[in-house]
Structure formats: C-alpha cells, structure tokens
C-alpha cells in the first residue's frame, strides 16, 4: 500500500473559547491497540471516547471554566486556575493542592493493580503517588521546567528554560544533561523511537537528536515551506523518520530519511488543521480542525497509511518537486569534463540568457535559427556527439515550448530549422511530445522526422497513427518506432484501450498490403510482429469471421515462406560447414582461421 | 538525510599483487627461463616478481620477506619501465669474495646490466650496493659463477634481424680490488644462436646455432676451465637424424628443436623436439664413431622443459601435457607427476644435491596474459613445498608483452606477437578490463580464470585457493591431441551473494567444433555454498573453496545468454539475472527445498536484443533498476513488474531514455542512481527524476569498452556514498604506454574528493565493503585508494620497523641481551637503540658508520628472542583491523611474538 492521508473525521466538537484551547490526549490512547481516546479539554471536560466502530462518548466529566488543564494522563489530570492555584486530581477522592503547576504527569497501573502517578512540577519537584498517597518526592536541580516527555514509562526528557535533561524515572537518576540545549532552542519537540525531532520555524529545518546522547544527528531542510512562511505549522512524529506536518489546511506526510513527501492532502473545507498527537504506530493522527467560521473547532482523527518504508513510495516525490518555483539557476545541469587539464572541448552555456534571446526572436525563424545554432555551437543540422554538452532538460523543454507556441505548422508556413534539430536530440523533453504528431502532421518532412528521431512519443498516439495511416513507408517507420521504444507488455496494454475499428482497419491494411503485393509493399517483419501483438491484445474472437478467414490464409502463407527459408538455410549451412577448416580454435584473442565462404551468393528469393 | 560527515582524505598506494616473472621467457632462445633460487641453508626460496622480490620459507610455506621495488629509492629507479627485469639472482655479495654473506645478502642481475646487492634477511638499512656493467645495448641474461670467477652472458638486441636468433656474448666479470667497480673483459661471441642452455652446475653451455651455411649446429662449450677440462664440441644437427628416413626429413616439425639440456658431467645431451620426441646424445663417443643416440617418446606436443638431475641418472621433461615426466636413464623406466596447474615451461634441479625441483608453469587457458606459477618440489618424494603465483586476471583483450610457448598442435602461438604489439600501438582504444569480485566479509578477491576461480587475499598478498568451477578435460589432466578441439567452458560472470555465503557463477559451455550445433552454446548458472567448517580439515577443501548447491541449465531459455547478474542486498538476498531481450529472473535460496529456486520472473519484453544491460537493486529491496539499451526502467520488486505510472510527472511512463546506450548503472546512495552512457556519466535523483550532474565521458570511453565493461572501472562505496572512477589513457608515442586516473567523487559527482595518477592501465576497481577501493592494473599489481590506507599493509619491510619500535622502552631487553651486547657499555647500548629508533622514523638510511650499524643490528637481532611485549606491541596492527582477515592478523601477531 502506498502512503496516504485520509479525510479527517470528527469525534467531538470543542466549544469556542476566548483564548486558544488547550487539549491534551492521554498517552495510552496513542498505542496501537487502544480503542479508547481520553481527551482533556481545558475549561470544558475530561472525556473518554470509543473510536471504533463509530466514535462515541463513553463518559465525561465537566471542568469548571476557570481551570486550565496542564497535564493529563489516564484519568489523572492537573489544573491551573485563573488565580494561580494548582491542583492535581488523582481520582474522585484525591485532589492534591500544589505550589507549582504540573508540567506533565504519568499514571500507570502496576502489577498489584494500584495506580502509580508521577507528576513533574514546573519548579523541579517530582512527586509520586500511589493510591492517593504521596510515596516519593524529590527536587531536581532544574528551574522553570517548560516541557516534559515521558518515554516508555521509564524515562523522562525534561526541557527547562536553561537546560535539557534525561532522567530515569524509577529512582530519578540523571542520565544525561545538556546545557547547550534549552527551551529556547528546544521548543516544539517530539520524541519517537529514540530520536527527538524538533522543527526550527526560522530556517524550516527539522533537527533530529539522538535521545540517549542528546547529540544532533541530522538536519533536514524542508524547502517547499519557505514559500508559505507565517502560516501556522504543527507536526507530529508517526514513525521512524516519518513526520506528519500540518500547514494551514494542508497535511504532508514526510519521509525525513529520504527527503520526500510521501503523501499530501489539502482539506479545502477547513481553515486550519492543528496536529496535537500521533499514534505510536503511525496509524492515525489527532488534530484540532478549525472550520471556516471562527472558533468552530472540532477534535478529529486523521487516518494515515505510512506505506512500505521503502524508496518505492518516495519515487518522484522529493521535496524539490513540491517547490513552487522549480526552475532556478542552480538546477542547471552542465556537462563537466572529468579531468581538469587538457580538455579543449569543454563548453558551458548560459541557458537563461540564450533562452531570453530565443524568446525575443521567436517570431522570426531565420533569426531564431541564427541565435540557436551560434550560441549553442551546433555545427550540423542533426544531433552529433559534439552536441553532448547541451544537456539541460529544462532549457530544451523551454526552447521547444517557445517554438510550439509561436508556430502553427501549417502546410506552407515557415518554421525554424532549430526545431528539426531539436527533434533529433536524444533528450527531447518528454513533456512536449504529447500531441506533437498531430501538430506537425501537415508538414510531411517534420512528421517523418518526429516519427523517426523524436524520443518519448506517447504510445497511444503512435498506435493510433499507425492504425490509420495509409502510407506504406510511414507505416513501416511507425511500427519500427513502436517496437523499438516500447515493450511488448505496454504495447498490448495500450492497444486494448484503442477503438476496435482502428484495429480491424490495421489488420486489413496488413493483409491487403500483402494481397496486392507489388514490389514496394512486401509486409515487413515489423508489421508482422505488430500484428501478432494486436492479435494477442484483442484476442482472435473479437474479429469477425470473414476477417479471420483472411487472416488465417495470410498467416498460412507466411508460415510457408518461413518453412521454405529454413530449408534453404539448412542447405546453405550444410554446404558452408563442410568447407570450414577442421581443428580451428575459437579463441577470441587470436584469430588465425579464415572463414571459407561459399562460392555463390544468394541475393533475392522469388516467392 | 544529511548526517554530519567526517572529512576524509583519500590516498593511493600500490601495495599488493604482482606476478612471478620468468624473465628469460621474453627471449625465445633461452631454455632456462626461471631465475628463482634457493638459499644455501635450503630454507628460503627467492622468487622475483614484476614488482618485488619475495622470499618464501620452505618449511612454513609462508612469505617471510618482500623486497618491494617501490619502497626503495634505488630499486624504484632501476625498475621503472616494464623492460627492466631481474634476469639472475646470485647468493651473497659477489663483489666481496672475502665476505659474501650468502646467508643474508643476494645480488640481483637486471637485464640492463645492473648488479644490486640486497639483504634478504633483516631490514634493508643502508643504500644497496650497485654496479652498472658496460654492456652497451646488450641485455644481460645470466651470470655464471665458479670458484670466485664470474662470466656474464649477454645478448645483442639486433632489431634488424628476425626474432628467432640472437648473438650471444660471454664475458669475464671482474671486480676491482675494493669491490667498488665492476668491468667486463674477454668477450667471446656466439653468433646466430637459436637455442641455449647450461648444465645445472653452470659449467657447460650448450647452444644451437645457425652456421654460415645456415645449417643448424649444436655446440657444447665449457664455461670455465675446470676439472673436466675445456671442451668445445660442435656437430651439425643433421647428424642426429637418420638419413634413411626421408619421410621424417620432410617434416620440419620433427626437426625443430624446442629445448636443450646438458648434464653436469658433460656426458649426455638431450634435445627436445617440437614433435614431442626427446633425443638423447652421448657426448663421450669419440669423434670418429657414430654418435650414440636414444629416442625418448612420450610427449604429444613440443617438449618445453628438459633438465638432468645432479648425477645424470634422471632426465626430467615437461610440456603441454601438464605432466612432469621423469626418465630413469639407466632402466628406461618412466615416472610421472601429473595434474599440474599449467603447462611446464621450465624445470630446474636446485639446492644441495638437487634436493628440490623448481618448476615454472604457465596457465595457458588464459590467453590474455602470461600467468606463471612457480612450484618448488621436493625431489625425494615429489611433494609440493611451495606454490607461488600472483593474482590471475583474465583481461578482455590480450596484453602486449608476453609470448606463448611453442606448440605444434596449437598453431596460434609465436609469430603473431609482434604484429599484435604494432596493432595495439596503433589503436588508441583497447579494452584490457578484467573481471574481479570482492567478498564482503573476508575481503578476498575472486578472479575467474577460464574454467577455474582464483581466490586471492589482497591483505595477505597470497593466493588462497584455485578451484575448478566447471567440468572440463583440462581439469583432470592435460588434453591429448584430438581433445584440443574441445573448447573448455568459460566463467563469464560471478557474484558473491549475501554476506559472502554464496557464490553465483555464470558459465558458457561450448559444444564440439564442426557440428551443425557448434553455435548452440549452453548457458549455465551455478550457485555455490561456501565450504563448511568440517571440510576445511579434509583434503582438497579449505576456507576458500565452494560447494555446488544448484546448477541451472539455460536459465533464460535455450541460447539466451545472461548479460548481467546482480546481487540483492540483505542477509538472505537473492540474485537477479538479466538476458539480452529484457527478461529478468530473480533467484533465491529456498530453505524448504534446500536449493536455489526461481522466485520471480519478468518475461523478455523488448522487441530487439541488446547486450547493454545492467541491473541494480535498491538498498531496501523495493525496486529494481533495469537498464536496457538506452532505456532505464524501474521495476517494482514485489510484483516484479515495470512501474508504468507517470511517477515523475513528466508525461512519460516512468522510464527514462538516455542519449545513448547505457553502459552501466549503479546505486550511489539510497536516492541517487549513477548512469554511465557512451557519452556521459550522470547522477539521477530518484526523488525528483531529474539529472543532478553530468560528466563528459565521451573522450575517454567512446568505443573503448565493451558493453558492460565500464562497470569494472566504476565502483560505489555504499557505506559512505562515494564513487571511484578509473579513466585509462593510451599515451601517444612509439612505446606502448598507458596512464590512468582514479578519481573519487561524492555521491552526486559534484565534488572531487581525490584524483590520482597511476602509470599503468587499470583493469578493475572495486569497493572493499569498508572504506577503501582496491584496483588491479595490467601488470597484475594491486593497489588501494582509501582513507585508511597506509603503505604498511602487508609490507614486510615496514613491519620489521614496527618490531623495532618496541624495543627501547623495555628495560628487560638489556637484561636479556646476552653475549652480543657484552662489548658495548650499557649506556652506549641505550643510546644506540635510541639512535636506531630515530633513524627508523627517517626510513633508516642515514647512519654513516657501517660497523656501528651492524653492531646495533646484531643487538636487535639478539634481543629479539628475549623481548617483552608491552601494550603498544600490537597497537599498530589495529590501525587497519577492519580490513584484515583472521589469518593475516594471526600472521602479524606471530611475527611480533617471534
């Protein structure tokens, strides 16, 4: 399955509030097999939902409108009131007033079914409660804690104003501390599978840190974001090096390792999507959706498909392809010499300025040609190895674009000779080949040129042309081109899509060609090969009886010829073989033996 | 993702490889081609290579010393060109008759008439003694010695004359009183020599000459005046042929002498003929009597090697049969030593009482290069003591500088050589690439060699195994006459799969000649499992051998060749084989079937045929890139079907069309594909489907390399995403000279990380699955371009320096240092040691006083036995630990412990 992002579906509406709503999701809801979703919405409620089969509210507890929820896990939550009083709600009967706000809490059932809650306070105090009783308290040497991330229920990553530290939760021993990383540089972080991901809004960089060492292990720039600076941006990590990123109402699924956008979705009905959490296994993300009307906010689940984690999913989806302005000077490809010294043929072109000149002279074929051939040092009228330095695909594409735009290719109209040259260039841009055949059909010279030398012609057009054309020579060229450029499978596939009438016409053309055989129109092997592909693709039974009979007769005749040829060959080879020298050594290094040729030559076979 | 990269600097060094040379094989008139010699104590065997002198210990069968030409300034200047070779080796310093020190020194004689005295034991401390003989244009081939007298045999290179006869000169060599200069005198000329040989004791010279009437004459001449008395015997070759047999006379082949031998007592002369007959002539008959002749008939083709043993009781002969034949002359009994690896070019009885036979073989199945193997056999039981060969690459075209030995049946030898050299000179482009693959774990090199496979250890600089991978007559014994028409199967391609556990070979079997079906080749794909542990102890098995697991006949259908094989990444990765019509097959080892099975198939799909096919798997095994002619397709690995969608949003069908046929594709990093065409070397970004950069290959590649052979000169480091590229150039001029560049690029080819020039043609470059690239040139030398390179890899000279570095710190050295140190004071001793350590840092060439030097060296040598090990003893070994196999490491450790 390839990667995809589905449309969001709403679980609950979040009431409009004056300030930004703080919504917290309990960690256990994000594990892979959880079907419940615990949500704490400040000043509103603590609710539990069942997600499958349909989202349903299971229970809910209202929260007074003066209380902001600062931490929430598994039914345990901490609040902060407007008048700066703090409280931790362990359960219905245990509410513990505190001196400082709880930055994050972790609540889990241990083996004897009792619930242990660990709360980390803003002032650096860590408290543990068991069954409503405080069993442990320790003050950490950290001040002004801003963010706490619990890792697998065993470790805590604590980001303070001046430092960042990793603690082991059992005894709260410090494992690692870094003063170079503090909240200023380390805000907006997410951790996943031993890596910390941080997004730098200023530079559009994802920074990746190793959790155990707090060392930076990589920086990934997201270039296409620079165009939309200032739009609200949120992200969540959904897999190793896989990040779901929301920018206004667009969501991107990024592969940071390869540097590609695996999937992209734009929700036109929404104003903004704010990602708040992602499932550990990457199967869904939870978001707050802002509707087009102000403050209409809903809690949504967005289902994700991460794909196969392989390069297959990323093919053609690099960050660069999402850039709005793709063509910049740096993207120019020039053919550089391998060795620095002694290369006289080295050439580089200023494509931008040449293109400018060409565009200016677009209306005048003679002037266009003069610029084209002079600036690019082209000597001959067709592509030669000397022209291998013209390699930039963008430039070729633009130049062809200019020509196609300015000339109509009517029977009598003039066109620049540069176009004929470009048609012989092996790197003729693939995106300009569509409708090229029909466009130049009025000028037989160009039409033939396109068929013979232009690469990347669309197969369906080639087939259509070859089925309707009456000219023997062009028909041969077309069939040659098709067989050369495309594989049997793709030809068959494309033929199935073609109108039946054309196909029967083609068969008739091939047979007719044979029947009124004058010297010039002997059915070529290419046509015969194409015929076999035609029959393979449409099936014999799709043809009517009359045509089938004709076809059978035609093929019988061909088989007879083939048999005759084989006999003749055998005869020839038998003769030549006898004459060859015995004891020859077929070494590829030394060729001493002379082949003995028969004294006669067979030139033409009358059939 | 960009991870912070440590900046690395690439270095090049030529550290390994090289092939044993038979210097006198270059001149067809010499029968004694091999110049290897054994030391006086019968312990060490000295073999010249084209880039070094190697000393092997006969008992341990190990190389105990290498004298690399490149490591010594003087030797480097002497052996610059390929023309200068070691043509003789004499024990001891021959200029110092009083103290020759045969147990430590050796005198090399070069073809240009240079004499160099080197140490073959211990470290080369001082500048080697050097003499230049005034031989003019002559090439020196041999220095004879008897009781302190020396005679030099030199040959005039007359360019006007045909290449079959030469003028010999035998001159006295005398050293001045101080031993500082050498001069030649009393030159005797032998004109028009067709063939020459000398007795084992080097007292008698036997020549086959053209006399003035163009009659061939045999001449036996004593070299020195000795106990046997002077001798100069001449008789026409005609006298050896019975007059009455006119039929035989008509056939020149029966009268074409291919080799000669004379015994030590000057009583017997043996002549080997191209027809295979050996004629034994008794020299003791009086002139007026008929010559006593004996005919020894066994050989079916030219006799190439002949020698009498010490007491003339045996005649040993060899030739194209790959069999060594022992003729007991008193009884007419014949004994054989069959199944040698190559044809016998030279046999010599060497050592005290002819204790050993030194045999030189040539593996003629490789027609592109002279692959010599030097064997040392124990004369008593004919067991092999040493078997010495270099890497055995098979080049795509024949290289210029060697000649094939004479054969009556195989007519393609001999005369064509000169023409070929001229042809090579004229053509600018020649494809001398060779096929090599590297084992990712053991780092051993695999070189397919005709019907067999050579496993070569780059770091040990030794051949590990030579294994036959195909069935052929040649494997079992030499061919007899009619069988020469049967062409042996050929290994065309091989790949090591997975972490070195499997080997896939592709071979072509040829049907017999002159049949209607002669062109119906059989294509065979074979899957080999690495030899198991149990086999290593059994005979014939070993670490480097492979066992056949699965054999597939005509895997892509009858007469459909496999043009590319690529190994898929991963532990259980399979193999993708590609044919010349676009068909792909994926093979994988099936545990249940316990066999390799065809797992996926993509039918031949194109409407034409091409040999320009290249495939590569993406690192996560999700995609297969398939280049066919000028098209590049992307195939989904799971469905094994081409991806047809417009994945790159360019209106196409997801495949690329290049400007010319694609020579090779390689994956540089996860997202960058390297595409080499006839004109460009490009990198393609798979994420955008756009070219990232392009390099102009046209001037260097156009028309040079056959289809996929360019891939042998491009290698990708998949760990650090680097690319190494070799550019070979044919330098214009009258000499046949090549030069090559090795360029290391980053993954997108935008930055050059290194650019090196190598003064020879490079045939192959490959990544060693670590940090380095290993390359092979047409002189069979191996080099390395890498970041962890230091020239000490497998380098004995410097290893000894490594040992020396241990000494000064340990106090127990002085305690253990015994009698030898007694005459020097304790503090002197320490100072000397310090001075030595310092010197070694400066390559140890600057100490003035020889006596002091020797004393110090003695101290070192003496102290060796009692030295203690400290924590630094092994530290140097770990510098390259990732490249070193267990065996090599063990050797290194043993060396320190010694």
UniProtKB/TrEMBL annotation, chain A:
Gene label: KNAG0B00830
TM region(s), chain numbering: none
Source organism per UniProt: Huiozyma naganishii (strain ATCC MYA-139 / BCRC 22969 / CBS 8797 / KCTC 17520 / NBRC 10181 / NCYC 3082 / Yp74L-3) (Yeast)
InterPro entries: Utp8_b-prop (IPR018843), Utp8_C (IPR053881)
Utp8 C-terminal domain location: 343-593
Biological process according to GO: maturation of SSU-rRNA from tricistronic rRNA transcript (SSU-rRNA, 5.8S rRNA, LSU-rRNA); positive regulation of transcription by RNA polymerase I; tRNA export from nucleus
GO cellular component, one term: rDNA heterochromatin
GO molecular function, one term: tRNA binding
Domain spans labelled Utp8 beta-propeller: 3-319
A family per Pfam: Utp8_C
Record-given protein name: U3 small nucleolar RNA-associated protein 8
UniProtKB/TrEMBL annotation, chain B:
GO annotation terms (biological process): maturation of SSU-rRNA from tricistronic rRNA transcript (SSU-rRNA, 5.8S rRNA, LSU-rRNA); positive regulation of rRNA processing; positive regulation of transcription by RNA polymerase I
Any one GO cellular component localisation term in the record: t-UTP complex
Entry keyword Coiled coil: no
Keyword presence, Coiled coil: no
A GO molecular-function descriptor: U3 snoRNA binding
WD repeat ranges, renumbered to this chain: 296-331
Top-rank taxon, per record: Eukaryota
Keywords: Nucleus, Repeat, Ribosome biogenesis, rRNA processing, Transcription, WD repeat
Subcellular localization(s) per the UniProt record: Nucleus, Nucleolus
SMART domains given in the database record: WD40 (SM00320)
Record protein name field: Uncharacterized protein
Annotated gene: KNAG0J01440
């Amino acid at each position: 399955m390839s990667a995809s992002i589905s449309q969001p579906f709403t679980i609950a509406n979040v009431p409009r509030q004056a300030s930004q709503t703080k919504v917290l999701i309990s960690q256990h809801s994000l594990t892979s097999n959880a079907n419940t979703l615990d949500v704490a919405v400040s000043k509103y409620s603590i609710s539990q939902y069942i997600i499958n089969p349909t989202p349903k509210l299971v229970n809910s507890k209202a929260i007074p409108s003066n209380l902001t929820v600062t931490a929430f896990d598994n039914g345990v939550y901490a609040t902060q009131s407007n008048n700066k009083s703090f409280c931790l709600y362990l359960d219905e009967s245990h509410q513990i007033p505190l001196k400082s706000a709880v930055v994050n809490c972790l609540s889990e059932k241990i083996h004897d079914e009792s619930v242990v809650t660990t709360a980390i306070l803003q002032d650096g105090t860590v408290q543990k409660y068991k069954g409503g009783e405080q069993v442990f308290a320790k003050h950490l040497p950290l001040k002004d804690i801003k963010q706490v991330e619990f890792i697998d229920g065993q470790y805590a990553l604590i980001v303070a104003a001046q430092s960042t530290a990793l603690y082991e939760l059992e005894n709260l021993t410090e494992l690692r501390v870094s003063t170079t990383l503090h909240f200023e540089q380390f805000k907006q972080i997410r951790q996943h599978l031993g890596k910390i991901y941080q997004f730098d809004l200023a530079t559009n960089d994802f920074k990746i840190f190793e959790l155990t060492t707090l060392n930076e292990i990589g920086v990934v720039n997201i270039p296409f974001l620079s165009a939309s600076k200032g739009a609200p941006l949120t992200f969540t990590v959904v897999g190793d090096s896989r990040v779901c990123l929301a920018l206004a109402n667009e969501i991107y699924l990024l592969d940071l390792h390869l540097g590609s956008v695996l999937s992209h979705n734009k929700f036109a009905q929404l104003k903004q999507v704010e990602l708040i959490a992602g499932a550990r296994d990457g199967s869904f993300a939870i978001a707050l959706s802002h509707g087009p009307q102000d403050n209409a906010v809903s809690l949504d689940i967005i289902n994700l498909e991460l794909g196969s984690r392989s390069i297959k999913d990323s093919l053609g989806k690099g960050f660069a392809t999402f850039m709005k302005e793709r063509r910049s000077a740096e993207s120019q490809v020039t053919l550089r010499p391998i060795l620095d010294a002694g290369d006289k043929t080295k050439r580089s072109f200023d494509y931008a300025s040449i293109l400018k000149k060409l565009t200016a002279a677009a209306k005048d074929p003679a002037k266009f040609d003069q610029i084209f051939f002079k600036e690019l040092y082209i000597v001959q009228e067709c592509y030669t190895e000397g022209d291998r330095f013209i390699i930039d695909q963008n430039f070729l594409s633009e130049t062809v674009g200019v020509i196609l735009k300015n000339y109509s290719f009517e029977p009598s109209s003039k066109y620049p000779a540069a176009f004929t040259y470009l048609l012989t260039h092996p790197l003729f841009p693939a995106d300009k080949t569509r409708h090229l055949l029909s466009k130049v059909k009025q000028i037989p010279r160009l039409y033939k040129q396109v068929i013979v030398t232009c690469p990347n012609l669309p197969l369906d057009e080639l087939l259509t042309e070859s089925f309707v054309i009456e000219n023997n020579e062009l028909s041969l060229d077309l069939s040659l081109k098709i067989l050369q450029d495309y594989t049997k499978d793709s030809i068959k596939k494309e033929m199935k899509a073609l109108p039946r009438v054309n196909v029967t016409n083609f068969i008739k053309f091939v047979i007719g060609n044979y029947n009124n055989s004058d010297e010039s129109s002997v059915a070529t092997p290419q046509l015969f090969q194409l015929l076999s592909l035609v029959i393979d693709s449409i099936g014999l039974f799709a043809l009517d009886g009359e045509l089938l009979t004709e076809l059978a007769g035609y093929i019988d005749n061909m088989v007879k010829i083939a048999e005759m040829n084989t006999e003749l060959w055998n005869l020839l080879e038998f003769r030549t073989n006898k004459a060859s020298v015995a004891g020859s050594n077929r070494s590829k290094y030394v060729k001493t033996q002379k082949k003995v040729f028969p004294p006669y030559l067979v030139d033409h076979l009358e059939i | 993702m960009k991870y912070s990269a440590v900046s690395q600097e690439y270095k090049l060094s030529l550290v390994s490889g090289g092939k044993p040379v038979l210097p006198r094989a270059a001149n067809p008139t010499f029968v004694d081609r091999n110049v290897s010699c054994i030391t006086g104590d019968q312990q060490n065997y000295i073999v010249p290579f084209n880039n070094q002198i190697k000393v092997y210990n006969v008992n341990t069968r190990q190389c105990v010393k290498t004298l690399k030409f490149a490591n010594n300034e003087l030797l480097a200047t002497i052996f610059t060109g390929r023309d200068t070779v070691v043509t003789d080796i004499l024990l001891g310093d021959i200029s110092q008759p009083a103290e020759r020190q045969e147990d430590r020194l050796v005198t090399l004689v070069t073809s240009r008439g240079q004499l160099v005295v080197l140490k073959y034991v211990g470290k080369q401390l001082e500048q080697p003694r050097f003499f230049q003989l005034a031989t003019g244009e002559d090439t020196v081939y041999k220095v004879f010695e008897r009781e302190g007298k020396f005679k030099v045999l030199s040959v005039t290179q007359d360019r006007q004359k045909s290449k079959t006869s030469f003028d010999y000169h035998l001159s006295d060599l005398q050293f001045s009183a101080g031993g500082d200069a050498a001069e030649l005198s009393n030159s005797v000329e032998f004109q028009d020599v067709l063939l020459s040989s000398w007795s084992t004791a080097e007292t008698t010279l036997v020549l086959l000459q053209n006399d003035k009437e163009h009659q061939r004459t045999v001449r036996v001449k004593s070299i020195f005046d000795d106990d046997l008395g002077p001798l100069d015997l001449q008789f026409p070759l005609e006298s050896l042929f019975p007059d009455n047999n006119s039929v035989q006379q008509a056939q020149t082949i029966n009268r074409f002498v291919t080799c000669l031998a004379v015994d030590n007592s000057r009583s017997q002369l043996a002549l080997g003929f191209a027809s295979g007959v050996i004629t034994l002539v008794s020299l003791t008959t009086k002139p007026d009597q008929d010559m006593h002749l004996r005919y020894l008939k066994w050989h079916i083709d030219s006799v190439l090697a002949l020698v009498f043993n010490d007491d003339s009781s045996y005649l040993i002969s060899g030739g194209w049969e790959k069999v060594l034949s022992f003729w007991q002359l008193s009884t007419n009994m014949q004994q054989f030593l069959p199944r040698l690896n190559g044809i016998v070019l030279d046999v010599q009885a060497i050592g005290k009482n002819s204790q050993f036979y030194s045999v030189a073989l040539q593996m003629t199945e490789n027609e592109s290069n002279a692959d010599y193997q030097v064997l040392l056999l124990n004369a008593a039981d004919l067991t092999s003591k040493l078997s010495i060969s270099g890497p055995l690459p098979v080049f795509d075209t024949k290289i210029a500088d060697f000649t094939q030995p004479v054969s009556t049946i195989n007519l393609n030898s001999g005369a064509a050589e000169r023409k070929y050299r001229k042809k090579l000179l004229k053509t600018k482009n020649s494809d001398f690439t060779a096929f090599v693959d590297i084992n990712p774990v053991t780092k051993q090199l695999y070189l397919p060699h005709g019907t067999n496979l050579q496993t070569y250890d780059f770091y040990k600089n030794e051949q590990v195994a030579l294994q036959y991978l195909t069935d052929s007559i040649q494997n079992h014994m030499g061919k007899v006459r009619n069988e020469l028409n049967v062409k042996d199967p050929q290994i065309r391609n091989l790949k090591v799969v997975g972490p070195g556990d499997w080997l896939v070979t592709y071979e072509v079997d040829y049907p017999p000649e002159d049949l209607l079906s002669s062109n119906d080749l059989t294509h065979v794909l074979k899957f080999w499992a690495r030899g198991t542990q149990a086999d290593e102890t059994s005979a014939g098995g070993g670490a480097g051998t492979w066992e056949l697991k699965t054999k597939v006949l005509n895997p892509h259908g009858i007469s459909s060749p496999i043009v590319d094989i690529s190994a898929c990444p991963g532990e259980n990765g399979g193999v993708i084989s590609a044919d010349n019509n676009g068909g792909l097959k994926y093979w994988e080892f099936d545990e249940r079937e316990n066999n390799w099975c065809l797992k996926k198939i993509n039918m031949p799909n194109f409407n034409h045929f091409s040999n320009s096919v290249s495939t590569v798997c993406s690192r996560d095994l999700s995609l297969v890139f398939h280049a066919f002619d000028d098209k590049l397709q992307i195939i989904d690995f799971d469905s094994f079907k081409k991806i047809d969608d417009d994945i790159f949003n360019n209106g196409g069908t997801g495949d690329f069309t290049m400007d010319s046929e694609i020579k090779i594709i390689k994956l540089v990093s996860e997202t960058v594909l390297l595409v080499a065409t006839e004109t460009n070397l490009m990198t393609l970004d798979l994420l955008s489907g756009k070219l990232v950069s392009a390099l102009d290959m046209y001037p260097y590649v156009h028309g040079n390399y056959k289809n996929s052979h360019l891939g042998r000169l491009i290698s990708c480091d998949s760990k650090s995403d680097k690319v190494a590229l070799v550019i070979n150039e044919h330098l214009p001029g009258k000499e046949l000279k090549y030069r090559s560049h090795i360029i290391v690029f980053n993954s997108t080819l935008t930055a050059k990380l290194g650019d090196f020039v190598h003064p020879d043609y490079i045939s192959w470059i490959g990544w060693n699955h670590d940090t380095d690239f290993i390359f092979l040139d047409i002189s069979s030398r191996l080099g390395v371009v890498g970041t962890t390179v230091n020239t000490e890899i497998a380098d004995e000279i410097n290893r000894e320096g490594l040992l020396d570095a241990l000494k000064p710190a340990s106090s127990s050295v002085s305690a253990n240092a015994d009698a030898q140190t007694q005459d020097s004071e304790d503090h002197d001793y320490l100072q000397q040691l310090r001075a030595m350590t310092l010197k070694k840092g400066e390559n140890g060439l600057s100490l003035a006083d020889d006596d002091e030097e020797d004393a110090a060296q003695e101290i070192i040598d003496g102290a060796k036995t009692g030295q203690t090990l400290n924590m630094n003893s092994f530290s140097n070994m770990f510098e390259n630990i990732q490249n070193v196999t267990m065996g090599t490491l063990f050797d290194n450790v043993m060396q320190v412990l010694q």
